[in-house]
Structure prediction request, 377 residues.
Amino acid sequence: MPVTRAKKFCIDVRTATSHFPGVGRYASELARAMSRILTLGEELSLICSNARELRGLPGKVTRLTTSVSPFSLRQQLTIPRLLKRHDIDVYHSTYYLMPYRPVVPTVLTVYDLIPALFPSSVGLRARLFFRLTHRLALGASTVVIAISRTTGQALATHYRLPPEKIQVIHLGVAERFKPASTEAIQTVRTKYGLPSDFALYVGINKPHKNLERLVRSWQKAFRDTSRLLIIAGPWDSRYDDVRRLLQRPEVQSNVRLIGPVNDADLPILYSAARLFVFPSLYEGFGLPVLESMACGTPVACSDIPALREVAGNAAVYFDPEDVDSIGLVLSELDADDSSQEKLREAGLCRAATFTWDAAAAATLEVYRKTADAQTRP
Prediction:
């Protein structure tokens, strides 16, 4: 009998770096989970920037190391050659900067369409670059994975992709996101100079994150109290309206920036918060909402499609464009211990349904079907 060659799947994890925090987390978590569930006759390769990335993976995993960056035009030749040399059956690009003639069936993951839907969040040159490269990537892909129904619908509407080309596969929550111990919480409070009670926002400060309305609503609702809103995450100096707002004396007493938080501290910071608030005008998914739920923190967030899809009935919602709505929901939740406890329990149950094992299994099934369609006579 002829020997059947193993199916070879390849994930491009060159984005698993600090330069791509969200995309990098997706690439690394997906690769780790998938390496555990490969069956006999399936092999996984990772295109890496160096041989040290994602070490210690179980299963048969091969590293294909290249010095070529996703930003380099050289990848248009280098990556397809690499794929052909190693007989890859399906290539998975986790970013839209990819080879646009990949020579093998290709899966592309799309997270959101923020530059297209919120053009003010990027400059003109970046907007034009996104428009061109996104269309090239979508055109080069055999299958497009959308991380939410919201993103899938936006792809179908904005780029007129046929529905059969889009597969919705939700993200997972890493296992390290869980309620922290009292001792760990106290350590993080001391490290960042935090009080025992505070509300938390985690994320960047780009316009669609809606931080200015959040700060105004918080100051209006809690100006006569000592209740503190902590804003954690990297800061983009191109969008400094919020920082200028925070320089006002009447705001400084209620809102504090603490900057980026390392990955080890993040689950503990979520656990330490009295409540988590996420006021985005648009999201492709909203992973911080799930992460905070997994840590047992009550969530108040924007009433937008992606967050409804992710949080379900385990959050309270507000109109993100209405300062009074945001403030009312936050003040009512802050004062209601019973509602907080119900949300805490509901959030833990909700977050438990989003796992990287499930995401990896669904993605692996996409690879299999894509490979089978290619070999079918």
